[in-house]
Amino acid sequence: PYFYVDDLNGKYKSIYNEPLKKIYTTASGDVIEERKKYGRSFESNIRFVQRYLIDRVPVPFPKRNLRLCFIDIETDDSLNTNLTPKPLTCVSFYDSYSKKYAVFVWQDGLNGIIEKSEEINIYKFDNELHMISNILKFIQAIDPDLLIGFNTDFDLGYLINRAKRLQLYPNIISPMNYTKIDRWGVKVYGRVVFDMKKGYRTNFNDKNLGIYNLDNIAKHVLGRGKKEIGITPGEL
User: What CA–CA distance (Å, rounded) separates 148 from 71?
Assistant: First the structure.
């Protein structure tokens, strides 16, 4: 059994390209106690059976250009993903294959209007039901490997439950025709759902950050916060 810890002279590299050294233990049960001696460890949570399979039973995995789909929703200031009392007003996507944005909006009298450019396609509908129906078909059509966003568990959860509320069938966004929402987050079977907010909090656990919102994390990582527009999504 072994794991990795920070070491400026280490010959191994972390996923952040930082130098590491390997720490061996006599028994698998010793890993838990041994890792407590170090401030940070890598791969110390891998069970011995899994470690053996990883090291001794190689499985070919061809390199693939994964298709990423970034998602962001706007709704009128509602935080209830279960009841979804407020309609979705706008849903935006970015597709890593086409390198284009797709924006879905609705307002009375807009049905069937599409605006296209090199960077963005805007799809306009005259009611929310038509908009969400086309959103579900869009995800199904581009068939992404990963659905990614900031607070994606909220966004996808709201989209799925809002679709159900409108008597639509959201499971079509899953290659296995199954979606699930529980306290661990949103699962779209056959696709990876990655919530960047949850990922940042899990991997960095920055106590100096305070609130884990987009503005704070952007300032911490990028040196600048998000751009405020001064109106609510409903007003927009």
Answer: 6
Contact criterion met (CB below 8 Å) for 41 and 203 = no
- pLDDT tens-digit readout, 195-220: 988 888 777 766 667 777 888 878 87
Q: Taking 60 as the threshold, does the pLDDT of residue 109 lie above it? A: yes
Instruction: Give CA separation, 209 vs 53, 84, 151, 202, in Å.
Output: 38, 30, 17, 13
Q: C-alpha 147: how far from its chain's center?
A: 6
Report d(CA 80, CA 177) in Å as an integer: 24
Give the CATH number of domain 68-196; options: 3.30.70.380, 3.40.50.20, 3.30.420.10, 3.40.50.1950: 3.30.420.10
148-201 pLDDT, tens per residue?
Answer: 999 999 999 999 999 999 999 999 999 999 999 998 899 999 999 999 888 887
Q: Where are the domains of the chain?
A: 2-56, 68-196
DSSP string for residues in 11-45: SEE-TTS-EEEEEE-SSTTHHHHHHTTSS-EESTT
C-alpha–C-alpha distance, residues 31 and 40, integer Å: 13
